[in-house]
Design a protein that fits this description.
By secondary structure, the protein is mostly helical. It has five helices and two strands.
């Protein structure tokens, strides 16, 4: 028996019946692969990244395992009901589509990048306003002098 075929047989033997059934339907515990390519989707709307970031910050996250997982297996993430309440994306409040999870993560990363860039620019502007100290003194120019 070839290596790939043996792995396939072993995967079917180890996987619970419900998992095998869902795999045949194209579903896995991790979700479906995204086919969101230009021309295959419609109704695109812009997203407020700062709002999504705030929703991510407030999203309850926990560790858990599926009832078919062995006791040593743990997953990390939100519950589908909390996800649905926070973002309202996907098909229902029972599953989290990997495309939606990736999208939320990417939008939140973009919002964090914008915030970081804005803060860096603000810090640079503030630093430019602070007088430089003379190398021979420990105090910045004009600070701590009486002016007389």
């Amino acid at each position: 028996m070839s290596g790939w075929r043996l792995r396939s047989v072993l995967a079917r033997v180890r996987a619970p019946a419900e998992v095998r059934r869902r795999r045949r339907q194209g579903v896995s515990a991790a979700g479906l692969a995204s086919s969101a390519v230009g021309g295959a989707v419609y109704g695109g709307e812009p997203v407020n990244g700062y709002r999504v970031l705030e929703q991510v910050v407030n999203l309850p996250i926990s560790t858990w395992r599926y009832h078919w997982d062995p006791p040593h297996v743990r997953h990390l993430g939100p519950m589908a009901q909390d996800w649905w309440q926070a973002f309202g994306v996907g098909e229902n409040d029972r599953t989290i589509c990997c495309t939606d999870a990736n999208g939320v993560a990417l939008v939140a990363i973009q919002a964090l990048h914008r915030e970081l860039t804005e803060l860096r620019e603000e810090v640079a502007a503030l630093r430019a306003q602070v007088p430089r100290s003379d190398p021979g003194t420990s105090e910045p120019d004009g600070i701590g002098t009486s002016g007389a």
